[in-house]
Amino acid sequence: MQLSVLDQSVACVGRPQDEAIRNTVALAEHCERLGYQRFWVSEHHGLPTIVGTAPEILMAAVAVRTSRIRIGSAGVMLPHYSPFKVAEQFRVLDALAPGRIDLGVGRAPGSDHRTAMLLNPDPRSSEMFPQQVRELHAWVTGEEMPEGHAGRGIQALPRAGTAPQLWMLGSSGYGAQLAGHFGMPYSFAHFITDGEGCAEALELYRHLFKPGLIEKPHANVCVWALAADTEEEAWRLFASRERTRVDRQTGRFGPLLPPQEAEREYSAAEDAYRQGLRRKAMVGTGAQVAAKLRALAEELQVPELVVITWTWDPAAQRRSYELLAREFALQPA
Question: Where is the Luciferase-like domain (predicted)?
Answer without folding.
Answer: 5-298
